[in-house]
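Hi all, posting the design record for the shared folder.

TITLE: backbone redesign
STEP: 1 of 1
STRUCTURE INPUT:
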């Protein structure tokens, strides 16, 4: 399962971030990306993700990857195009270089 963003209130309601000075800067950078309203416009509903989870559990195939959500599909296409290492570096840049 490779879900993209999911439109829920999890981060505001349930996420408990443990604070440690060594990670404070990194956590703030990641939270800035995740809390960007422009990014959230492309998130899937929990029901859309659940449909793909159900498909993966019941389709009887040997399929290895299930992309759940348009943003996950787009990211996976970028990964295939760029290659694993270049994609990983791009994700690191997007989240950690703010």
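Okay, here is what came back for every position:
SEQUENCE:
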């Amino acid at each position: 399962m490779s879900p993209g963003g999911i439109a829920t209130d999890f981060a505001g309601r349930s996420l408990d971030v443990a604070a440690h000075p060594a990670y404070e800067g990194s956590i703030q950078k990641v939270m800035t990306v995740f809390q960007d309203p422009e990014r959230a416009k492309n998130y899937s509903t929990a029901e859309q993700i659940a449909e793909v989870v159900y498909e993966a559990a019941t389709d009887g195939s040997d399929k290895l990857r299930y992309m759940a959500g348009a943003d996950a599909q787009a990211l996976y296409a970028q990964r295939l195009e760029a290659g694993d290492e270049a994609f990983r570096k791009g994700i690191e840049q997007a989240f950690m270089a703010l």
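COMMENT: Residues 46-58 form the longest helix (13 residues).
Let me know if anyone wants the other runs.
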